[in-house]
Amino acid sequence: MSPIRKPWPNPRALRWKIAALCAAVGITVAAAVGVLVHQLTFSRDQEEARHVTLNLLKEEVDSHRSGQPGNNDQDRTPKVLPPGLLSQLSRGDGPFTHYSDTGIDAPERQGPTMWAAERVDGHVVAVDTTLQPQYRKLQSLDKHMVLAAAVVLAVTMPLAALAADLPARRLRRVAHTARRISHGDLDARIGAPPPRTPGNEVADISASVDQMANQLQGRLQDEQRFTADVAHELRTPLAGLVMAVGLLPEGEATELVQDRVRAVRGLVEELLEVSRLDAGAEISEPQEVPLGHVVAEAVRVTGAGADVTVTVRRDAVVQTDPRRLNRILANLLANALRHGRPPVEVVVDGRDITVRDHGPGYPEELLAHGPQRFRTGAPERGGGHGLGLTIALGQARVIGATLRFTNAAEGGAVATLTLPADR
């Protein structure tokens, strides 16, 4: 059995962004401090070398004026001088100093060197001091500073990631709760208490999301209660109206009144169904059914005829509630026939059922937020109460199916119902 591999850290995660920011700040500070220490040390070494070289020049000049040789009975004046020092001597007698980091083209004068020269009685007296020991010390100091910065970064980066994990974990919890709420779980809460002191942004976000969820749940519950109350209050007078219409004499006016009464009765029944779905009172009664046959029967019952075609690519026997499945398909077909244009294509592919028309497609608001009751979307899709798709989505949740709404690339609304695997 192969070991479980842990996923690589996501570089886009907040904790790693904070760790990377801390690393960048640390590298910047270490580089700035390193450059500053390097320059200060280098300047100090140069000043010390300049002071020593000027003292040697003074001794050499005094020896030259007194007519006595310099130290160790040897003339310290180099045979070859750097161009920068010669340029200064051409403008005056001096004394002048000059630093050369590469030396001159002489084997004994290579490397960083401090020069000093003065013109005495028409002769140039010059001395030099090598800075090789100081240069090696400076290189060693740079290496130690780089090593110290690497050690500090190796320690601080994991600590920064751990410190950033706490707010990142709380933000992930906020995002998870927000997704649960958007998927219909109105009881989801973060459970974070309001911040006692201002300035805690994560606590403010958590408390705000909980407050928003409470207000949203309250408004939705008020809307659901209003819908249920309206449907129940209309049901009794509507029953009396249906009986009264049945007593009217036959005629064109009677048929018109009966048609409107049937429309009102259908609306009240849909409102009652929506209120039952909102209350969670609907219970699925699954049984094994041949999906292709159920879909073909549902299309036949609609009486759409040649306007609807059924294609079974892969048939399947599934466990579902056939009555609720028929209700979902009836609403999807009614929406396609009312708001779209024929032909309406119904395709069965395993556990997926696709209903597509060739009309203007679903409006952007429906694709973004799902079907909303009493909202029909774009005017070009015709009139209606916006309850058909709402009921279809609610019944799909009851049977554990997934209902997705998209638009085809070449035009037309596409509704895809995916039935769950058998338990």
Secondary structure: elements and pairs:
Layout: H1 14-66, H2 83-89, E1 96-100, E2 113-120, E3 123-130, H3 132-182, H4 201-246, H5 252-279, E4 287-290, H6 291-302, E5 308-314, E6 317-320, H7 322-339, E7 344-349, E8 352-356, H8 364-369, H9 388-398, E9 402-407, E10 413-418
Parallel strand pairs: 5-7
Antiparallel strand pairs: 1-2, 2-3, 4-6, 7-8, 8-10, 9-10
Helix pairs in contact: 1-3, 3-4, 4-5, 5-9, 6-7, 7-9
Describe this entry's structure for a reader:
Helices cover 55% and strands 14% of the residues. It is of the alpha+beta class and 423 residues long. Among the domains are: 211-279, Helix Hairpins (Orthogonal Bundle), CATH 1.10.287; 287-418, Heat Shock Protein 90 (2-Layer Sandwich), CATH 3.30.565.10. The strands form three sheets. It has a five-stranded mixed β-sheet with strand order 5-7-8-10-9, covered by helices on one side. A three-stranded antiparallel β-sheet has the order 1-2-3, with helices on both faces. Strands 4-6 form a two-stranded antiparallel ribbon. Strand 2 (113-120) and strand 3 form a beta hairpin. The longest helix is centred in the N-terminal third of the chain and has 53 residues, at 14-66. The chain is rod-shaped, with a radius of gyration of 44 Å. The chain starts with 13 loop residues before the first helix and ends in a 5-residue tail after the last strand.
